[in-house]
Amino acid sequence: MCVSKKALQRERDKLYEMTGPNMCFKPIRVMIAQINRHLKGWKNYFGQGYPRKAFRDIHAYVCERLTRHLQRRSQRPYRPPEGVSWYEQLHRLGLMYL
Question: Could you give the angle at the alpha carbon of 83 between the alpha carbons of 89 and 81, nearest 5°?
Fold first, then answer.
């Protein structure tokens, strides 16, 4: 059992809505908490079988979307501290790994 392509696309669409340009008013920690809650439910539903590749794909997509979101938030884009990668900074902000 694997996650279907259609289910992955629906999840990407939902994550796009949650990190879209119309969500720039939300504090980043609140947004990450909502994404975590959503991903936890998705993980519990699709956790049967062999979902590892799907989980990796969705996690990479979430990291990419949050990075873009943080960079376009204002006139001065958010940057992680010196010597810290985006991946590490997102996990410091509270993003869970699937």
Answer: 50
The candidate with the shortest Cα–Cα distance to 94, out of 62, 61, 49, 56, is: 62
The residues, any chain, with a CB within 8 Å of residue 7's CB and separated by 6 or more, are 46
User: pLDDT digits over 29-57, tens only?
Assistant: 999 999 999 999 999 999 998 999 999 99
Banded pLDDT at 87 (limits 50, 70, 90)? very high
The pLDDT value recorded for residue 73 is 81
